[in-house]
Each structure stands twice: as structure tokens, then as C-alpha cells.
Amino acid sequence: MERKILIVEDEKKIADTLKFGLDEIGFSVEVAYDGKLGYHLFCAKEFNLIILDINLPGMNGYDLCKAIRAKNQQIPILMLTSMSALNDKIEGYESGADDYMVKPFEFKELLLKIRVLLKRTVNQSLPVGDILKAADLEMNLDSKEVKRDGKVINLTAKEFQLLEYLLRNKNRVVSRVDIAINVWDVDFETNTNVIDVYISYLRNKVDKQFEHKLIQTHVGMGYILKDH
After folding, report:
1. Is 61 exposed, middle or buried (0-12, 13-18, 19+ CB in 10 A)?
2. pLDDT tens digits for range 41-100
3. Phi, psi of 141 (to 5 degrees)
4. What value, to the nearest 5°, has the Cα angle with vertex 40 and ends 36 and 42?
5. φ, ψ for residue 150 (rounded to 5)?
6. Given 72, 149, 181, 211, which residue has the most CB atoms within 10 angstroms?
7. CB 62 within 8 A of CB 38
8. Residues near 84 by Cβ (< 8 Å), separated by ≥ 6?
9. Cβ–Cβ contacts within 10 Å for residue 150, how many?
10. Helices in 169-211 by DSSP H: which ranges?
């Protein structure tokens, strides 16, 4: 699942540094250097999360946040500002922000907040139910039993979590970053080689004995569990 972030920040050096850092770890980032352009970009394109400054030319961050909230109640909004007074934070939250960071900040802490906000919205949109299915693969969330073509497959706890995530997102490509957020609950700097290793474990148990391979690799993009 692609992660598209809109940064609305008039300090060009900060905005461009954030864009570079986030692009490097797999996000798709667009930048607006003033509030009005930020609003136009928000209206014209789809984003998964918005990072915005408060002191913006054209339209300040509070007004921009309110305008975004009037159109979209769900999208996570993270305010990034040098204004650290309690009243400023209160106004930010009352404008509709989900979280608030004061400059200067650590990039790793920003990633942590992005991870939490994205995970919250992703989990809200995932289907729920006692049984997850794809082709002849079946997962019982209550008994924690996994079967394929009626045969029981024994999985470790982490393998089960990974397969559950793939099943909940079946027929959609999920990136290593997506898996790191939702299965390992780690920050983006973690070496994701462990994910490839666990995908290999799953394939050995879920696909190896069967002609139809469910777990497929999309080179440079991630993995997809296909049920047809």
C-alpha cells in the first residue's frame, strides 16, 4: 500500500530535507511552500498523511487544518512548528490535528509519529472477521489454526501475524515498510532483511507443496498474496 505524504512548510530547507529523508525510505512525498498551494494539492490528489507548519504564507496552518478537516475527517494531520506554548498546541488540536511536533526535532521521532498515525488509519480500514480466506488457504483468528486445501499448517506467532497481514490485504501489493509498520511495529531504520527471511519461511510452509503459489514478489515494490 503506497504511502503518500503532503508536507506544507514554508522553510524550504526543512521541507526539502524532510522530503529527501522520507523519499529515501519508500514514501511518495509532495511539498507545498505556502498554505493555499497546500490546500490546492490536498484537493487535487490523494494523500495518506499531511505534515503542516503553522506559520504559513497564504493560509496559516490552523486555517488549513480546519479546511482539510471540513473535507476529510480521517486523514492523519501532524503539525510541525516552532510554536511550543500550550495554547498553541491546544489551538492546533482544536483545529483538527492528530499530533504536534515542536521544532527542532529528531527525524527518528518524526518517523515514529508518522508510523503510529498511519498504523492507526490502516488498521481502521482493514476488514475484520473470524475467518480469513484466499483461494484454498484459510485462517481462523479465534483458534489460530491455518489450513490449506484442508491440511493444517503450523506457523510461529510471527509467521501467523505476517500471513494475517497479507491475507487482510490480499490482492494488494504491500511494501517492506508497510510490513515493518504493521507486523514488526518497528521504525523505518530497522534492517528489513528479516522481512524477506520470514516471507521465505511462509512460502516454504504455505506454497511449497502446492502448484498454485499464493505469495508473489513484485520487484522493487513488495509482496502480494493473490487468491486467483
Report:
1. buried
2. 999 999 999 999 999 999 999 999 999 999 988 899 999 887 777 777 788 888 889 888
3. -75, -20
4. 115
5. 80, -5
6. 181
7. no
8. 102
9. 7
10. 176-179, 193-206
Q: Which three cell numbers stand for residue 116?
A: 503510529
Residue type (1 letter), 220: G
**What nine digits make up the cell of 45?**
490528489
Total number of residues shown for the chain: 228
Beta pairing class for 77-81 and 49-52: parallel
Unique residue bearing C-alpha cell 495518506? 48
Helix boundaries (H) for 30-98 = 35-44, 61-71, 86-95
Q: Tell me which residue has cell 488498521.
A: 123
pLDDT digit string, tens, across residues 163-220: 999 998 999 998 887 888 778 766 555 455 788 889 999 999 999 989 899 999 998 8
